[in-house]
Amino acid sequence: MTPRSTAFVLFLVIGVAAGIAVLGTNPPRSKPIALAPSTAPSAWPDYSVNGPGFVTPAGPQGELITLGYRLVTQTFAIIGPEAPDPAKRFAGNNLSCQNCHLDGGTKRSGLPLVGAFRKYPWISSDGKHEVTLRDRLNECMTHSMNGKPLPHESREMDALVAFLKFIGDPAAEPSTAMPHPPVLASAARGAEVYARVCAACHQPDGLGRRLGSVNDGRGYRFPPLWGSDSFNASAGMNYVSIAARFVWRNMPRGVDPIHPQLDLQQAWDVAAFLHAQPRPPGPAAR
Ligand code: HEC
Ligand code: HEC
User: What is the residue range of 192's domain?
Assistant: First the structure.
């Protein structure tokens, strides 16, 4: 068949199928199935609790993209250490990607994943090797998630990449450096900030507060900031400047860079305090 006649046959088949669907005996649904267009969002998406949220896109990739979204938002439940399938326990802690990549990676100030797709692959600074999105994503698996890399050829990896591609159309947020603090950061002053501002949610012992109980695979209401279930020593969040920037712009949860609650000095001090707390060693030190 020529491509044209193939298209025509396809057209007929779809037409007949649609006819059957319309005339079929199914009672009318009270609620239409919400399917977003199969095309990726061209504007910056908003998957925050107050926004329109994520909707499964139509098209053959819809299911895979949805799995990717679930992996970002409920990592612990699918590939965490308490996931039902032991063979899928790739992450070493019960965090979710969105504990850091806020709102499913759509919060501009919260380490957004929107637009990340188009940055890859890039060439390493020594010019010797190519860094693919799969490589970069596994950096977060082995450091932020303190776990094992996802096999490059796995459904979970494909799903994450499909999701990142889906939200990858808008331009990435330009990265702004964190201004230096007025005086050198002090972990001792940071401990006071922690007790006064952070402990209410992340708990005085820094171990966070679970949604349910240990081993139920439901993750945290307030994630741990140190201890055995936290990111490890070689994670990006264990760099004082990265943590200071994240905390200043996003913590307590709900603030934004236009209305920060901490001043610059407090953000750096509390980041220095976090850095001084015990956490799992990085893979190189294991
Ligand atoms: C503990 C915090 C934390 C967690 C949890 C985390 N990440 Fe990250 N991630 C970071 C930091 C920090 C960066 C570096 C951001 C930068 O360089 O500005 C990063 C970078 C990335 C990047 C590269 C983004 C870019 O623009 O180049 C990707 C992709 C990514 N993470 C995916 C994930 C995925 C998927 C998960 C869950 C499996 C995850 N991360 C979990 C903190 C985290
Ligand atoms: C009102 C509760 C609340 C307060 C107060 C709060 N946080 Fe958070 N924090 C959260 C929540 C919830 C998350 C996870 C975000 C999500 O999943 O949407 C989070 C995530 C984080 C993360 C990244 C995830 C991780 O586990 O490492 C860091 C770092 C962090 N907070 C530091 C702080 C610091 C430092 C303070 C004090 C200045 C603070 N937070 C105050 C609720 C809070």
Answer: 187-285
